[in-house]
Design brief:
Blueprint lengths: L1 H11 L33 E7 L4 H6 L7 H8 L1 E7 L7 H8 L5 H4 L5 E3 L9 E3 L26 H8 L5 E5 L2 H8 L5 E6 L2 E3 L8 H14 L19 E4 L2 E3 L11 H5 L2 H18 L8 E7 L1 H9 L4 H23 L4 E6 L8 H6 L6 E2 L6 H12 L7 E3 L4 E5 L5 H17 L3 E6 H6 L12 H7 L9 E5 L3 E2 L17 H4 E8 L5 E2 L4 E2 L3 H8 L27
Parallel strand pairs: 1-10, 1-11, 2-19, 2-20, 5-6, 5-10, 12-17
Antiparallel strand pairs: 2-18, 3-4, 6-7, 8-9, 11-18, 13-14, 14-16, 15-16
Helix pairs in contact: 1-8, 1-10, 3-12, 4-7, 8-10, 10-12, 11-12, 14-15
């Protein structure tokens, strides 16, 4: 089996400078006379839950006509919800992944951001990474011990193991926060990519499969990558965009030098590797081959790194989506050949927004980068000057948007003065849409109704945890990129309450099901109850925020089975 994994890895990560990968074969078609309910008459043996990091609904639809592989299978033979929502305001990776297989919004999962602040913690670093155990001695939010302790609710895999301890739960991804938030604390195997290869929790030994994949990663990294061919649909995007300081993006092919892990990570090579590990885990553990239903969650992280590094509208993003489609097709074909009865759900943890410099060139001159005066450091200086409280760090935060925290060392009177001046300054700033206080958010009822109709306050409430959320929530206006300078790191990002970042596709597929498309808004928290219904797993409605989506086209109801 390890020889097959090694061979598959070399095939999956091969470059295409001469000939493109052939279109993947379509999934087996259902019999013409089969009723729409036939595909859901029995529970599947394997749930394959895929999150494509930063795969916005816009990106999904932009290239939909060009899909030939796995994404074509999902969009032409499955149930398509093109208007899915990560409905909360804090559209970051960790909160988004926490919703996909828990059925709960961040207000219930407790995962309000990638990083929040605990000003009561005894360590010097007051920032808390969502997937760390900050009580471990000698650690900080950048050099941490990975842990699921902050996730407050069970995942689907956790619920399945409670109902049947024989259930096998596996989670693999390019990021630890994707693995941990989808797999949960009771997963049998949890593996994420680092510069040293795929790793797991502290003290977990590396099994032969992972060791073999890591060997192949090292071998692959040791070789330079001359780049990928440009698919025809990407030709119109092949022009450089100046982001300042002599730097450009937009016309890349993912060429990299030998040993450059950073460029490997932000390329199609990363997702191909993760899918090979996932396929190897399914085979080596016999997932989907026993009496019970098993589950594997797969976090494909490259699209996010590509979006941050190059933006979402250049040749880089176009090549990435094309390769993603092809690699998914090969992955599904392999499962078909193994005769596994599986169901797929594919979605994203959040959307994304292209860099303002390209938008400005393409009919959007109002696009802008955020004013550096809105960073916590600059706000502290400005408010300190206004209140006379100089020499203190008055305001803590992770950037020029999102949660802001007032220092705990302030007296009651000082805090009131700082809050009043901060609100006054922020609400007068031309790039600020609104600022909510903690009290305002806490007093708001939990959101309900179609997610596309929610107010900003309702979105904020869906991200709110009274113990972890900030004293203020700063929301920027649309078309303001929350990175002040694109030449000093990432060029583009997400995290806003706007639909560019909230909207994601939600796609379900099972062999034999009848295709349909539902364009109205649904939420990623609807995924867990939908899958739970397919495997006849009861989930109390008061324990989750989502609702079951009927996957049977026409008459019949998969939620009632």
């Amino acid at each position: 089996m390890l020889k097959r994994v090694a061979a598959a890895l070399l095939l999956a990560t091969a470059l295409v400078p001469v000939a493109p990968v052939a279109a993947q074969s379509p999934a087996p078609a259902p019999a013409a006379a089969a009723p729409a309910t036939a595909a859901f008459a029995t529970p599947p043996k394997l749930i394959v839950a895929i999150s494509v990091d930063q795969f916005s609904a816009d990106l999904f639809s932009e290239y939909r006509q060009y899909y030939t592989g796995g994404l074509k299978r999902l969009t032409t033979q499955g149930a398509v919800f093109p208007r899915g929502y990560q409905s909360h305001a804090a559209t970051e990776t960790c909160p988004g992944h926490s919703t996909i297989l828990t059925g709960s919004r961040p207000s219930r999962t407790g995962i309000i951001a990638n990083t929040w602040f605990d000003l009561d913690t005894q360590r010097e670093d007051k920032a808390v990474y969502c997937a760390e155990d900050e009580t471990q001695p000698g650690t900080n939010s950048n050099d941490y011990v990975a842990s699921p302790i902050h996730l407050k609710v069970p995942t689907l895999g956790g619920r399945m193991k409670i109902a049947n301890p024989a259930t096998r739960v596996v989670s693999v991804a390019g990021k630890d926060r994707a693995v941990i938030m989808m797999g949960g604390p009771t997963a049998d195997q949890s593996w994420w990519l680092t510069p040293k290869g795929y790793v797991s929790y502290k003290g977990i030994p590396t099994p032969p499969l992972v060791a073999k994949v890591n060997e192949q990663l090292a071998a692959r990294l040791a070789q330079p990558n001359p780049g990928f061919e440009l698919p025809p649909q990407c030709a119109a995007k092949d022009f450089a965009v100046n982001i300042g300081a002599g730097q450009t993006v937009g016309d890349g092919r993912f060429a990299r030098d030998a040993g450059d892990f950073k460029k490997f990570r932000a390329s199609p090579e990363q997702d191909a590797l993760t899918l090979v590990l996932a396929a190897g885990a399914i085979e080596s553990m016999g997932l989907g081959k026993q009496a019970q239903t098993d589950i594997i969650s797969i976090g494909l992280s490259a699209t996010d790194y590509v979006g941050h590094t190059y933006g979402t509208e250049g040749t880089e993003s176009c090549i990435q989506v094309d390769r993603l489609d092809r690699e998914l097709g090969a992955f599904f074909d392999r499962l078909d050949k193994d005769g596994i009865d599986y169901v797929v759900v594919l979605t994203a943890d959040h959307g994304g927004h292209d860099l303002p410099e390209r938008h400005q060139e393409n009919a959007m001159p109002m696009e802008a980068r955020v004013d550096a005066a809105l960073t916590p450091k600059a706000l502290t200086a400005a408010i300190g000057a206004k209140t006379g409280l100089t020499g203190k760090k008055l305001i803590w935060g992770d950037g020029p948007a999102g949660d802001l925290y007032f220092d705990k060392g302030l007296t009651k009177a000082e805090r009131a003065k700082v809050e009043a001046e901060t609100l006054k300054l922020l609400r007068a700033h031309p790039q600020v849409q609104t600022v909510f206080t903690k009290a305002e958010i806490a007093a708001a009822p939990a959101p309900s109704g179609p997610p596309e109709s929610w107010s900003l306050l309702q979105e904020a409430r869906a991200s709110f945890d009274p113990q972890r959320s900030g004293d203020l929530l700063l929301l920027l206006k649309p078309r303001v990129m929350s990175i002040p300078d694109g030449t000093k790191g990432y060029v583009a990002t997400h995290g806003s309450p706007w639909d560019t970042d909230r909207r994601v596709p939600i796609l379900f597929w099972r062999n034999g099901m009848r295709h349909f498309e539902q364009p109205l808004g649904v939420e990623t928290v609807d995924i867990l109850p939908t899958l739970a219904a397919l495997i006849k797993l009861p989930v109390p409605k008061d324990q989750i925020d989502g609702r079951c989506l009927d996957l049977i086209a026409g008459e019949g109801d998969s939620c009632a089975q």
